[in-house]
Specification:
The structure is a homotetramer of 318-residue chains.
Chain A (H helix, E strand, L loop, with lengths): L10 E11 L1 E9 L2 E15 L2 H5 L9 H15 L4 H15 L3 E10 L2 E3 L18 E4 L4 E8 L4 E14 L24 E11 L11 H18 L5 H15 L3 E10 L2 E3 L16 E4 L4 E10 L14
Helix pairs in contact in A: 4-5
Function (chains A, B, C, D): Catalyzes the oxidation of uric acid to 5-hydroxyisourate, which is further processed to form (S)-allantoin.
EC number (chains A, B, C, D): 1.7.3.3
Pathway (chains A, B, C, D): Purine metabolism; urate degradation; (S)-allantoin from urate: step 1/3
Chain lengths: 318, 318, 318, 318
């Protein structure tokens, strides 16, 4: 076996982190014949005193990623999963406290929503009060996100969502923009505005001593505000709509200090039907081509006054 | 330019078809301030007297695929989109009737469902009765499917869905199976049963002279029956559940003669927590690992007595 | 527990099949310090006397899909993997022979190619002849396919590939096509022709008594012929190119009786640069927009004279 | 139309950027009958004096994203595409210089590699020296990446790659790690080590006055060093392999100051074949299960001494 020690190299190890990504855990809770479920995808990332494993391959400070996976399953059983955020806090605290070389733990969670399948109206009616309620259909809309980071003393919780696709079929204009020699786009006073919302929001909560936000309710409320602000904004640009969505969350939800939104402009182009003797006017109900690529991409942070921006600006690698 | 004529080759041209795939069309209908929308992905496939284009490259019989795309958009404007099936019938008839060399047209459609975003409770209340209703969020659950085939005289309509993910957290067993020398699976009397429903169903309707089924209502009812049969079946095998789902549709919906279902068994394995001193019993609410691959794959056709099986048996290439 | 027996229903069970899909098996072979590897994704599908499990849930005839997975791994160890086809034949024969209720086995295999990473020129040179050769990089081009079906007496082997993307930057024209009222496409005498080849080819080999084709060499040769026929055909339509590709295989490879090709026309549109005072002529080397959707889709079967068409016509669900 | 002015809100606009993402441009260059091609996916992101468009929807400072798309195509024609980096530099400079409100431009590029299809040995041989060479097959291995950022005075170029899948079938161990109460993983002295390399490397080059690196050669060399360092490292942990890969680049390529690598541990688990009476020892050539999820994820930065770390630590959102 080759031996490696840190060579006299002009090479420095920078930030590093490791852990098990995408542990898929489903927790069922039974309340008599009524079942509940939580369906998560948990990624653990640890960092700390890890120089030696990089230089020599010594694993003396390395808790195996397989162990972090086991911990996710064991904690789901021992403590249950109240919310993604609470579960992530529990995990992050464990790794930082129990492992001396680990100075920082970051837990990222995707959550998939399910809704109940309603009891068959064709089946014989149940005799007792304890109707079976253990059947679910996956909701399939957005994926909920949570990221919990703990460095031993302070906490940061960033929640969010992705893949929430929305569309306004009117009340969107685009005109008055800069025209240079490469500009050919005609102005429009009635267009479709569609996007796939990707958002992250940072909680003001920063430690165990403070009362925790109501994570589940907070998510539902923020999701509602994002949808309503999108729907309710008469839009002159997607930037304006984005700002209204972020500002609505900051104004309505005291627990949130920062919102980052990444909104692809999912273009719906009016099809030119003139060659076929057809008018395709928006006022009459038009036909659109839903394009894939390229697409506009609008991204911004909206902050509570006095708060620092801490969410990374790139939620995408494009 | 090279000239090609059919060489004296021991080579025969067999079945062939061509057309434009995945034309993404969105049709908005305005009813005052209330908008409706249809969001389709339309694939046209034509066949007929097409030997020459294969042998020599002569396009004298070829309607360009670009034209079939244009036709999709023009028809959406001229005739609207009542349902995917009605729209597909309209298109298929057009190609077969208007193009002498085309003997058969097959239209495949994916439909994406949207639901309304409810009006903001934070915005000023609307003054009139004509509340703006033009904001939508994509439903994101299953994709609806329709395939319409016309050979000039007879019709075949096969509708369906894919990507509908369902789960029963109990009332599923698996035991009493064959054991050979490679069998290690333990029997179970309480497992999670989850699948991603992919289904196709063939209508008895076969021509223009007959009254058409109510396509939209038919879809909603069949979807409901599939969900309820899945939920209501105490399952000893996924095959049994599949059969109950298909049979329910045949029994409850007179317009359907054949159902094909492809059900991957999305395994949820009980995690072994004994090494950590934890019991993980289903009766107490257990923790599961949701596996990706491999997965069981159960497929079957369920037919109305006296009907022929015409849906291809492979809805997947795996 | 609910009891189910076959009810007096007007409902018939049609074709059905089951098995474990997507078992990912990697087999390493060591020849001293030189390693070889086979990387497969194996899907087993069994059918036979399976009515009872659908009607009542009795698994008395059901070999668990988990067992079919175990068999894949055990056979990889016991017999090795010479080629995807040989491995599939071995598996199919086993299931049909060893399980009385199983009358037909179909094995589908995806194979991923790897190539060696060349020894570092920076490392110290190896001292002996036995240079370590155990490092690989995934080739990443097409995925190789094989489907083996056995009903106990006769065999069918269909091999193929998918995701092989090719492009000719000239020697492609498109003109002389049908124009109807929805046709707007201009004719062209110099276009890019690009496609993503999906192909299946059926071997004449139909049983154990005959000498088997040389599966590995056959694949390499057919792949070469497809590429060369694509490159060497001056194309007036993608149909013509497709036919030349299929015919080349039939003519050059005696072991093949039937080829099915599915060729999406990956459109590369000339960008209109006139608004910016720029010519964008193909003769000078042009700029193209590589479109995603929609796309033409050209599909056909090419047969050896006297052979029957047995490959299903739809390799795609669009 | 609703009017919006910046309300007296406790809400601040933070970092923001916008542009057209994923413009797919293919540029053909003709050198007689020999063609060359560049196949890019270009994403433009601009920022600067953009408060007003967020607050009021005024687009007076907004160059439309459609214009940035047009610019990509026009520049490809006017100036050609020597390399992704050079093309990105050209674009970035243009936006910052030509648009007063734009203070910073970031261009991200994905590049897809193609290789020539060799001339058919079956076709008639070419008569002249000018053999047609216009046929290509997509290489399909990694995707090359480039990111160019310009704020008007200084430049940053980060290149990289993703989706490069590599495997060592031996010379990898994992033992001597921390064991806590959740650790069950057995130690191993001979395992498969496989990963899908995602890497970014930052050039020292920071401005127009300096001589530019040879972008194409730099990429090829760094790719080679990553592969050889992976292959040549006897590994006691994936962290050690990662460090060797990064350090090799720093040491061998003077133009690079920083490397960030994200390496998923694509687990290949030894299958337990003992229940079937089979040994599955690595020394004999073993059978492995290639797992999908979860997977270890190892990430680190390797720096040239004296350089600052500037590449974001998260190349993934998991």
């Amino acid at each position: 076996m080759a031996e490696h020690t840190r060579p006299a190299r002009p090479v420095i190890l920078g930030q590093n982190q490791y852990g098990k990504a995408e542990t898929r855990v489903v927790k069922v809770t039974r309340d008599g014949a009524t079942h509940h479920l939580k369906d998560l995808n948990v990624s653990v990332s640890l960092s700390g005193d890890m120089e030696e494993v990089h230089y020599s391959g010594s694993n003396a400070h390395v808790l195996p990623t397989d162990t972090t996976k086991n911990t996710v399953y064991a904690f789901a059983k021992e403590y249950g999963i109240e919310s993604a955020e609470q579960f992530g806090i529990h995990l992050a605290r464990h790794f930082v406290i129990s492992q001396e070389p680990i100075h920082r733990a970051r837990i990222r969670i995707e959550e998939y929503a399910w809704e109940r399948i309603e009891a068959s109206d064709a089946d014989p009616a149940p005799l007792g009060a304890d109707v079976p309620r253990h059947s679910f259909v996956r909701k399939g809309q957005e994926t909920r996100l949570a990221q919990i980071t703990c460095d031993g003393s302070s906490w940061e919780v960033v929640s969010g969502l992705k893949d929430l696709v929305v569309m306004n079929t009117t009340d969107s204009e685009f005109w008055g923009y800069v025209k240079d020699k490469y500009t050919t786009l005609p102005e429009t006073h009635d267009r479709v505005l569609a996007t796939e919302v990707s958002g992250r929001w940072r909680f003001g909560w920063s430690g165990d001593e403070q009362p925790m936000p109501a994570w589940e309710k907070s998510y539902e409320e923020i999701r509602k505000h994002l949808l309503q602000a999108f729907a309710g904004t008469y839009s002159l640009s997607l930037q304006q709509t984005l700002y209204q969505m972020g500002a609505r969350v900051i104004e309505q939800r005291d627990e949130i200090d920062e919102v980052r939104l990444s909104l692809p402009n999912k273009h719906h182009f009016l099809v030119d039907l003139e060659p076929f003797g057809l008018k395709n006017a928006t006022a009459d109900g038009a036909v659109y081509f839903a394009a894939d690529r390229p697409y506009g991409l609008i991204e911004a942070t909206v902050l509570r006054e006095g708060s620092a921006a801490r969410i990374p600006v790139d939620l995408t690698t494009l």
